[in-house]
Amino acid sequence: MINLRAVCRSSTGLVHITRGMKKYPFPVTFENVRFPPNGQLKLPVMPAEPVYDAEKGEKKYKSTKRMIEARGVEEVHTELIHEQYGLAAVSGGFIDSDDFKFLQDRINKNLIDNQFAVWRVDEPWLPRTKKAQGTRLGGGKGSIQKYVTPVRANRIILEVGGYITEIEAKAFLLYLCERFSFPVEFVSETMLAERRRKAEETRMMNKNLVVWMALGEDDILSVPFKYFVFCIGGLPSSALLICVLLSLFLHFDQATSTHCEVANWLPSISAAVSTYTPEKYIWRILIGLHIGPRLVVAVAFRNFLMSSPLRPYTGSKQFKFLCNIACGLNLLENFFLLALTSISSSEDHSLHAKCFGGFAISSIIYMILSTWLFSESGRRRATNLGERSYEYKILGASIFVVCFFLGGYLYWRHNTYCEPGIYTLFALVEYSAVLSNIFFHCTLYYDFHGKNIALTSSFGSSHYNLLPTQIEKDT
User: Fold this and answer.
1) Closest Cα partner for 114 from 161, 68, 172?
2) Which segments cross the bilayer (predicted)?
């Protein structure tokens, strides 16, 4: 039998002769290439700054750094439209006009006939300010230095395609990754398809009883948070409106009478909601119904502040302690309101007055403290809704504090001078105080926008440990 590995010995060395099947790669074809529909093959120039339309009232504005725009993972622009090659962000970052110009010059220089490149990111729109050298600290932000484009992880930055192979694309795209201030990688449609296949395989091979995708499927009951806000704001507002109107139509003379018999045209809240029937029953039922959701929301708002990723890390113990204090004040406010509702001034005037004082003091302290904690936690600057919520919180708290002191002054003036119409003004201020308190608590609509309150099984994410998909060994 002939040995296929015949050995030819000589003085120069050992030579192996082998025989087998040769495998050659299939030639690359470009039959499925999709060119840009507008016919533009080169990268267009990215403007250094956005264009503002003065007729529409647009003008340049200064802004914070808004690092939130580059945090997290991109959910939309993660696939290659032309299904060939491109650059993708590994983690978030910002691209300025100098980077765009560098990329445009280098890529357009390397493109030949029937090859194209397209941008997949927006033009620079986020302003960056910088003070001149030698300028003193303070006095606000400096002038706008440049504009940048925020990019999240997995975002496709640009694409290259046409009659081009992977080796040709890598030749001038790989060294461009070093230009960015954040990690960027070369990707191809084959690489992305392989990643999708591995992710699907990992999902199918996961033998855990509880997986992340199935955690939301075990929800027994899920209620959008906006309905809780409607309950918190709608029930007491409706109760106040109904009781005042019924008092005016059914018991006008009794509800508007005063101890000094001066002219008065509006009943106070105590006279409207706790003295006559059916007003007092309507008030107690609606206020009692809205207390339950408010207790749940008080604890949820505490956790909302403490779980903020932008919260201060220095003095975190003091921050958590103040969050607990604010939660306790909110619960105390609800209990005083429940006591006010259950015990009318005609039944026990002294206890009713003490409950009112406790309600007012706890409300004022809670409003001020929770507004400050909302700003300190970073929830204010996280989104546009956070900024709007912060402004509305300040508005509601300010109106409540002003109405509280103004109502005290009008009540004192009525009891001292017994002037006509003063008690009517006191009633109006009292209504405004209650409505401003309701308005303040309704700002939770912006804080928990898009979230649900769910009743789930006890075996949830707290008992589930995600297994590592990749194990690295030290060599």
Assistant:
1) 161
2) 227-249, 281-301, 321-344, 356-374, 394-412, 424-446
C-beta separation of 107 from 117 below 8 A: yes
Beta-carbon contacts of residue 194 (< 8 Å; ≥ 6 apart): none
DSSP string, 272-299: HHSSSTTHHHHHHHHHHHHHHHHHHHHH
- Are the CB atoms for 20 and 9 separated by under 8 Å? no
* Nearest in space to 94 (alpha carbons), one of 127, 50, 62, 63: 127
Using alpha carbons, list the distances in angstroms from residue 29 to 33, 115, 168, 457: 9, 14, 14, 54
Q: Which CATH superfamily is domain 32-49+62-129+143-197 in?
A: Ribosomal protein L16/L10 (3.90.1170.10)
* Predicted structure pTM score: 0.55
The tens digit of pLDDT for each residue in 154-189 reads 999 999 999 999 999 999 999 899 999 999 999 999
Count CB neighbours of 261 within 10 A.
8
Q: 146 is written with which tokens?
A: 């440049």
**CATH 3.90.1170.10: which residues of the chain?**
32-49+62-129+143-197
pLDDT beneath 70: ranges in the chain: 1-20, 207-221, 313-314, 456-475
pLDDT in tens, 88-112: 999 999 999 999 999 999 999 999 9
User: Cα separation of 219 and 222, whole Å?
Assistant: 6
